Every structure is written in structure tokens, then in C-alpha cells.
Amino acid sequence: MSTPPIQWYPGHIAKAEKALIEQLKKIDVVLEVRDARIPRSSHHPQIQKWIGEKPHVLVLNRIDLVTPVSHQLWLEALKAEGQVPYCTDAQHGKGIKAVIKAAEAVGVSINQRRRDRGMRPRPVRAVVLGFPNVGKSALINRLLKRRIVESARRPGVTRQLRWVRVSQDLDLLDTPGVLPAKLNDQQAAYKLAICDDIGTAAYENQLVATALIDLIQDLGCRNPKPGFLPDNILQNRYQLDPTPMTAADYLAMTAEQRHQGNLERMAQQILNDFRKGLLGKVTLELPPTYP
């Protein structure tokens, strides 16, 4: 029996995508926000098509939820691909100044060209793009140094496009998290679901929790660099060694011990523990360059 695909049906997303494509004609620079726990899977598959040749600033958010070793490995991998990530913890305001400077730097060349044509300079127009819950609104609030955009650690909070003035040199377009009509990479879809990054998706908590257990087990078996992951993540949290059993059996055993066999409650607990950082700092993807 095949695993049901993760699906979503948010009508506001389709409407927002159409409005976004129209607004992109006015944009000078794109700030793409990804989740540092899944840097590859949280790269939106349509972003490159949307932005074309526009300057692109890559923001890795939630660096507070990954280990320094994991973070450094991913930085090196992305730089090897010619990307220069700007790393942020938007909830606590870390790394924000560098993002502002990167966006404003684009405006310097734009306004020089405007002056050369006898036109007055104007603020650079930037857009913040990414999956629904990767921290875009929290980033914008930090850029603005005040709460102007509704923000929450749940997907789908931003529902419409809006322009906000960051400084005399920078205007920002806040966008809803835009999902592709269909995500063909179901491995990526499961990682996005685990991290709560895909908004109003249709998925089964038990399957997603089992996928998380599998991923943690697989990463442990691949022996990533010491410090990439905390040791014995699941055993330390649930006092049960997952090594001799399948992920599904582990979910069933922990459910028996903690929730009278209620698989759904145990699945929700495991997912919530991961999302709140209670399992420790866990990166779910190795860089593609890693052996």
C-alpha cells in the first residue's frame, strides 16, 4: 500500500500567487527565506522561475534550532554552489542588520543608473518569499524594529500582499507563504510537514511523526560529523532506544508507555517536541556534498 501524498487546498494561495507574479514586475531584489533545519527542502521550486535575473538574497532563518556544526557544513555547501547565505534568528533579532545591508546594497547600483538618466533616487523594492511558516513575517517585524506584520509560529498567518517601509532606502513587500500547486518531491513535502512549514496541508500526523523518527535514525546511521546532531536524540527524550525497531514500532511502543497506546497523541507529542526544540537542535538534511 503506497503512502498517501501530502496535499493542500488553500484557495488564498492561488489568488496570492497571481497577485505576487504581478507585483514581482516592480521588485528590485528578492529575499528568499529558508528553514535552516531543512535548507534544501525549504527552497521553493518556483522561485527561480519567478525572479529570473533579479538579485537574490538567501536568508537561512531559525539558526537557533540547529547545531553550529550542522550550520557550518551547510554554509560551506551553499557557498560552494555560489550562494552567500545570510543567517538569522528572526524571533530574537539576530543577523537582521546584515540582511538590510545586503538589500540596500542593490539599491546603490539601481539609483546610480537612475541618476545617470537624470531621475531621482528611490528606495530599493524588496520582496520576502518562502514557504508559509519559515519566519518571513517575524523577519519583517525585526527589519522594521516594530510589530507591523502579524506573525506567529503557525503557517498561513499572512493572507495578503502589503508594502511596508523599512527605511528611506528600503521598501518591503510582505507576501503570504506561497505553496506550489503540487510538490512532486514527497520527501521534501514530509520534511516541510515535520517542520510545520507548509500551511494548510492535508497529512496524517502518525505518518509524519514516523517519517521524523526514520529521518533521525537514518542520519544517525550515516554518522554525520560529530556535533551535527545531539547524541541519542529519541532515547534521551522518551527513555526508549529506537535502534532495534522500526519507526512505526517505536511510535507504537512510546504510545503504549506514555498515552495508553494512543498513536495520534504520541505522534502529536513527537512533532510538537521537535518543533519546539525539545528534542534538541536537529537538522534533518545533510548537505549534498556530504559523503
Describe the structure.
The chain is an alpha/beta fold and 291 residues long. It folds into 2 domains: 7-174, P-loop containing nucleotide triphosphate hydrolases (Rossmann fold); 204-275, no CATH class. 41% of the residues lie in helices and 13% in strands. It has 10 helices and 8 strands. It has helices at 11-23, 47-51, 68-80, 96-116, 136-144, 186-194, 205-221, 233-238, 247-258, 263-275, and strands spanning 7-8, 29-35, 56-61, 86-88, 124-129, 162-167, 170-174, 201-202. The strands form 2 sheets. It has a 6-stranded mixed beta sheet. A hairpin with a 2-residue loop joins strand 6 and strand 7 (170-174). Helix 6 (186-194) packs across helix 7 and helix 7 (205-221) crosses helix 9. It is elongated. The two termini are 32 Å apart.
